[in-house]
Amino acid sequence: MRIFQEGKIGGLALRNRVIKAATYEGMCAERGPSRSLVRHHAELAAGGVAMTTVAYGAVSADGRTFAEQMYLREEIVPSLRALTDAVHAEGAAVSIQLGHCGAFTKNRELSTSRPRGPSRGWNPYGAMVGLARVDAMDEAELERTAAEFAAAAGLARRAGFDAVELHLGHGYLLSQFLSPATNRRTDRWGGSLENRLRLPRLVIARVRDAVGDGFPVLAKTNLCDGFRGGLEIDEAVEIARALEAGGVDALVLSAGFVSRSPLFLLRGGRPLRRMIGVEPSVLQKLLLVAFGPFAVRRYRFEDMFLLPLARRVRDAVTMPLVLLGGVSSLAHLERAMDEGFDFVAMGRPLLFDPQLIARYRRGEAATSGCVVCNECIAEMDRPGGVACARVPAQLEARAREVRAGLHLQRPA
Ligand SMILES: Cc1cc2nc3c(=O)[nH]c(=O)nc-3n(C[C@H](O)[C@H](O)[C@H](O)COP(=O)(O)O)c2cc1C
């Protein structure tokens, strides 16, 4: 089957066509990897994926959405190295997603008095912690941000990662610049699509300089933002063309804007009860009870839900493309290949069963048991980090790790 044949991204050979999508793990020790994070990715690697992706490594302390998140710095290189070594020992490659939250943050450890994004505005997500107002970044900050992406990518390479994935989607900083809804600048960084692309392009150029030719640079981009006034598919196609010309090696095609349409990128269940359960602040709990049903809209799940829009990008570029979103069964994987995609990325099905690809390969299964309840979204905020709420063995294993303190220990 084609899905089990070798593939290539940039200079990197991958043992098959399945990539574990970045799913925030909640397994950081002192804002760096913990032993739980290493175990998590080694398990995914042992389960047969070609490449696993460490989720959301912020490129700077101010690029964190919340304070516990990992940010890349020299001090954590030995821990990252322990992680990449553990994945390589299982025969898989490992990538890290590099991001900056921009205006979407509730990190009270910011070095600036307000969050910074493309334009002045509001950040309802940070309202409860006094971060409701947003300021516009100035030219010097934009240059510095691009340099931070480059430094983070260089550091990732030195720590043994095989690739980096730049987060250009889901409403984080680079997506805030691309989206006409959040980028209302009137200077050369806003307005036309050409201008809105300027920061992402600068970041890519700086990252390429830092990692050199041949080192794979992927970008996760939006096919659409999922709300009126946001980015739509016609511009997304132009963005894909620009990224191809700018030297990106592969695109991971996603959608959605966490601050505006949180479940658009997932579809399926709305885990409000569990989200209320894990929320530590009583006030936030009450707000979720009162406004959650209105603020968090439901979206019907469909198999391969991004395929119709992703086809538009497939027709426009020749670079490797990664199909994502509701891709779960063996038949979906083969269909993605038939449709001309080079790789697939899977999130929830691999959280449900990290061994899934090995089972597919051995002919022991052809479908995933994930029911897209999305309870894993809430679970990632519990001590010990993300686990499938429907798999008691995972919840027990997490409890054992927490008792042993592995979620708080650095691997090196
Ligand atoms: C628990 C959880 C955490 C996630 N965290 C991230 C993240 O940190 N970065 C990101 O780009 N996407 C994140 N996602 C989105 C996934 O990468 C993926 O786009 C989405 O789950 C759809 O793919 P799927 O249908 O295979 O699950 C997350 C998804 C889940 C379920």
Please explain how this structure is put together.
The structure is a single chain. The strands form 4 sheets. The chain has an 8-stranded parallel beta barrel, surrounded by 7 helices. The chain has a 3-stranded mixed sheet with strand order 8-10-9. The chain has a single domain (2-408), classed as Aldolase class I (TIM Barrel, Alpha-Beta Barrel). Helix 1 runs parallel beside helix 2. The chain has helices at residues 35-46, 77-89, 139-158, 173-178, 193-196, 198-211, 233-245, 272-278, 282-295, 307-316, 330-338, 348-352, 356-362, 375-379, 392-404, and strands at 7-9, 12-14, 18-20, 28-29, 32-33, 51-58, 93-99, 116-117, 121-122, 133-136, 163-167, 217-222, 250-254, 321-323, 343-346. It contains 15 helices and 15 strands. The longest helix is centred in the middle third of the chain and has 20 residues, at 139-158. Strand 14, helix 11 (330-338) and strand 15 form a beta-alpha-beta unit. 52% of the residues are buried. The chain is α/β, with parallel strands linked by helices. Flavin mononucleotide is lined by residues 21-24, 55-56, 97, 167, 170, 220, 254, 265-266, 324-327, 346-349, 376-377, 380, 386.
Distance between the termini: 39 Å
The biggest sheet amounts to:
8 strands, parallel, barrel
CATH architecture: Alpha-Beta Barrel
Count of beta strands: 15
SSE run: EEEEEHEHEEEEHEHHHEHEHHHEHEHHHH
At the fold tier of CATH, the topology name is TIM Barrel
Number of helices: 15
Strands in their spatial order, largest beta sheet: 3-6-7-11-12-13-14-15
Q: In what range is the share of β-strand residues?
A: 5-15%
The shape, in one word, is globular
Average predicted local confidence, pLDDT: 96
Low-confidence stretches: none
Structural class estimated from helices and strands: alpha/beta
User: Approximately how much helix is present in the residues?
Assistant: 25-40%
